[in-house]
Amino acid sequence: MSLQLLSTSKCYNGEVKRYSHQSKCNNCEMKFHVYLPATISKNAVPVLWFLSGITCTDENFITKSCALQFASREGIMLVCPDTSPRGAGIEGEQADWTLGLGAGFYVDATNEPWSNNYNMYTYITSELYDLVSTSFNIIKDKQSIFGHSMGGHGALISAFKNPSKYRSVSAFAPICNPVTFGENALTHYLGGDKTKWDVYNASVLAKSYQGPQLDILVDQGTADDFLYKLYPDQLIDACKSNSANINLTFNHREGYPHNYWFIQTFIEDHIVFHSKHLN
Ligand SMILES: N[C@@H](CCC(=O)N[C@@H](CSC=O)C(=O)NCC(=O)O)C(=O)O
After folding, report:
1. Which residues are catalytic (predicted)?
2. Could you tell me if 203 and 238 are in contact, meaning their C-beta atoms sit under 8 angstroms apart?
3. Mean pLDDT over residues 207-232, rounded?
4. Which candidate, 115, 157, 125, places its Cα nearest to that of 26?
């Protein structure tokens, strides 16, 4: 599988780069950003994946989070994938911001016509994971994952479904149960039988997670306009019921909204949290 370099720039002594490649599981070209700390030229480095929210591309986090200075300081590579396939040309793909482009929801679609392209779960946890592992000077067994909103949910389910693959997981304002925010997308991708969505439901998966002790950090703003469809209490309750395997730190942040100003405020905490598990 070959990577095409689209752009590169020095940043905090390291480099921010954008690549494209042909995705087998999504059957289209996919783009992603990485941040490579300067240390990668001498030693293999750990990796931290960031999954973005609905409407984002691979660019939002790189340009708006202020994360790169902390990844540079901690010697961690960042990988920022896109949020959906692009170019599938499926009817209705651009009609609503909660379905299709920018709203892949990190699941593998089972329903046609989506199943040929919308396979973001396999893309993140397998195809791009393997591509990154073979293309960069990384420590393969030191990888962690975090995300925002839809991407926070994607990070949680990726960690719950793959014990040992990610050393730690964190999220900003994650969707904790996709039943409402993801209703449009998941009905199209997985069908109308909501019991079939449980395999991608963070609050369901948290209850049954068994594996190495998983440390989770979540920050949630109290002034988040989307709070009513995030269901944080379901994740908190599920993690409490499985406290033998999961250690959740959940911070309610007074007055903060859902956006990247909120992410920017707490990004250092999240990178330090992951650094402790990776370094
Ligand atoms: N277009 C929507 C708002 C979309 C939005 O707020 N998206 C969030 C993620 S929401 C859950 O996944 C986001 O990250 N946006 C990108 C950004 O750079 O802020 C509307 O009009 O309400």
Report:
1. 149, 224, 258
2. yes
3. 98
4. 115
Residue 2 Cα to ligand 1 middle (Å): 32
**By three-state DSSP, how is residue 50 classified?**
strand
CATH annotation of 4-278:
3.40.50.1820
- Tell me the domain boundaries of the chain: 4-278
φ and ψ at 31, to 5 degrees? Answer: -115, 150
Q: Which one is catalytic: 153, 188, 258, 274?
A: 258
d(CA 106, CA 109): 9
Q: To test ligand 1's pocket by mutation, which of 50, 54, 263 has the most ligand atoms within 8 angstroms of CB?
A: 54
* Helix H or strand E segment including 184: helix 183-190
Buried b (16+ CB within 10 A) or exposed e, 249-276: ebeebeebbbbbebbeebbeebbebbbe
pTM of whole model > 0.95?
yes
- DSSP symbol at 115: G
Pairing of strands 28-36, 77-81: antiparallel
Which CA distances in Å does 166 have to 46, 116, 144, 145, 174? 11, 27, 4, 6, 17
Check if 56 has its Cβ closer than 6 Å to any atom of ligand 1. yes
ipTM here: 0.96
